[in-house]
Design goal:
There is one protein chain. The chain is mainly alpha-helical and 106 residues long. The chain has a single domain, classed as lambda repressor-like DNA-binding domains (434 Repressor (Amino-terminal Domain)). Helix content is 53%, strand content 0%. It is built from 5 helices and no strands. The chain has helices at residues 8-16, 22-42, 46-53, 57-64, 73-82. α2 runs parallel beside α5 and α3 (46-53) crosses α4. The longest helix is centred in the N-terminal third of the chain and has 21 residues, at 22-42.
């Protein structure tokens, strides 16, 4: 379930479930999807990913299954950096067309 920007739909579903941390969970989901795409593209095993990223194999397994409750945004970003990705965080004032919130694009 994705909207054109891939983010609002996920957040709306999470908000509808009554999750207070919907923005953070959706940001994690976007990062996990990108991480999983890289893992698949490179044909890496969970053990190989663990060695490259410094995560434990069980944590890699959680990411692969999108079980992200016990994995921080920072950990996901560091894993992407370990796989030669540039992760950028931009903070700017909210506007009428772009309300306050968190958006992650991958």
């Amino acid at each position: 379930m994705r909207s054109n920007d891939g983010h609002k739909c996920v957040v709306n579903v999470l908000n509808d479930l009554g999750l207070e941390d919907a923005d953070e969970l959706s940001a994690k989901a976007v990062l996990a999807v990108k991480l999983n795409e890289l893992i698949e593209k490179r044909g890496l095993s969970q053990t190989e990913v663990a060695g490259i990223t410094g995560m434990t194999q069980p944590k890699v397994s959680q990411v692969r299954r999108h079980k992200l409750q016990n994995i921080s945004l920072e950990r996901l970003m560091q894993a992407l950096v370990s796989l030669d990705q540039h992760v950028e965080i931009v903070v700017r004032p909210a506007r009428r067309t772009v309300p306050a919130g968190i958006t992650v694009a991958a």
